[in-house]
Amino acid sequence: MPDSIEELSRIEDLLPVVEPGVTPAGLTDQIADITLKHPNTKTWLLFVALATVGLGALTAGFAALLLRGVGVWGIDIPVGWGIDIASFVWWIGIGHAGTLISAILLLLHQGWRNSINRFAEAMTLFAVMCAGMYPLAHLGRPYLFYWLLPYPNNMSVWPQFRSPLVWDVFAVSTYFTVSLIFWYSALIPDFATLRDKATRRSHQYVYGILSLGWRGSARHWQNFESAYLLLAGFATPLVLSVHTVVSFDFAVAIVPGWHSSIFPPYFVAGAIYSGFAMVVMLAVPVRKIWHLENVITMRHLDNAAKVILATGLIVDYGYLMEAFMSWYGADTYDSYMMYNRMTGPYNPVFWAVIIINVVGVQALWFKSVRRNVLALWVMSWVIQTAMWFERYMIIISSLHRDYLPRSWGMYSATVYDWLVFCGSWGLFLFCFLLFLRYVPMITMFEMRQTAHKAASTGGYA
Amino acid sequence: MSDAPLYGVMAEFDEPEHFLAAIRRTRAAGYEHMDAYSPNPLEGLDEAMQLSKSPVSRIVLIGALTGAFTGFFLQYYAAALDFPINVGGRPLNSWVSFIPITFELTVLFACLSALGFGVLGLNGLPQPYHPVFNVPQFGRASRDRFFVCIESKDAQFDAADARRFLEGLDPLGVYDVLE
Question: Cβ distance A426 to A53 under 8 Å?
Answer without folding.
Answer: yes
